[in-house]
Task: structure prediction
Amino acid sequence: MLFWIITGGLTLVVAATLVLALARGKADARPPAAYDVDIYRDQLKEVERDVARGVLAGEDAARVRTEISRRILAADAALQQADTGHTGRGNTVLAGGLVAVLVAGSFALYLQLGAPGYGDLALKDRIAMSQELREDRPSQATAEASLSGAPSVSEQPPDYVALVQQLREAVATRPDDIQGHRLLSQAEARLGNFTAAHVAQAKLITLLGQDAVVKDFSDYADLLILAAGGYVSPEAEAVLERVLAMDPQDGAARYYFGLMLSQTGRPDTTLRIWDQLLREGPADAAWIAPISSQIETIAMRAGVNYAVPNVGTGRGPSAADIEAADAMSPAERLEMIQGMVSGLSDRLATDGGPVEDWAQLISALGVLGQMDQAAAILANARAVFGNDPSAADILARVADRVGLE
Result:
């Protein structure tokens, strides 16, 4: 309530200032007819001076006086009309319109961009609320139960639907059939039965045991999220962390992990993860399109003036980005640091790149404390760029900043 009292008071002060400015302008302003009257009176005085000097004859002076007097009467009539208040009423209407637009526009803009009734929060409080939201969010089962309607199979040919039903019956009679569960998971997903698909995928992973690979877990996470309508549940998050522990550069898992963070109040971290995925590419990766369609909204939520990078530029993290990872959870740090540094390192080793990328990698490794690897990359970069003076200067500066010779 105090917020609305303060903002209302400030709005009224601004509105009153505008009204007073308009009123003062009206009071101080002279209508054009007043200046005409002054001029004509000066002309009458000039006629009298001309007569006194003998420059103007009596008859001519009388005729000129008559003409000037006529003009004075006309100007005075115009002046009297201007004083009747029509212009003042116009200013009053203008002032009222400005006040109405100011008040209504201000509150409409706040209702659109602001959060009425929501107190100001420090960064620490927002992070704590995000963590609480993350811990208390609905389970996978709750999310699936909230989705109404059964999945449609009308887009698939009847023969295919019949074959899937036969596959279900066959797998039910052979519960330990690994290949059967794999095929069933894929078939159910194709029909849009994502809940049945992730159940079959979970059974497949159980049967595979230690032989389950990254793709098995990545597909499982994907099916869990699809079954929840795009929501990343705690169960799906646990699977994503398993995927990232096995392969920190798995693009689909990194995309979904960023999506989970955006759903739990951390668009800033989502922006860092998705930005790096865009820079790494490739352009035809499955996650590029959904990131491209959402990342500007994420940046706006994070309060960042963001320019979407070209896909596949391969630019790695800066030292500031690495240091910012201190506020993240271990899984987030693993995702951000290892994925980005490893991706940049691999690209430079295979495709090469400008000296700025080499310097960026050396700086990141220095922040991580991996001094031996940073020294090795520095030596490799100096060999690559040979006697290029500008490149040598850049490498010398980053070596000095990191603490290498």
User: Anything to note?
Assistant: The mean pLDDT is 79. DSSP finds 19 helices and no strands in the chain.
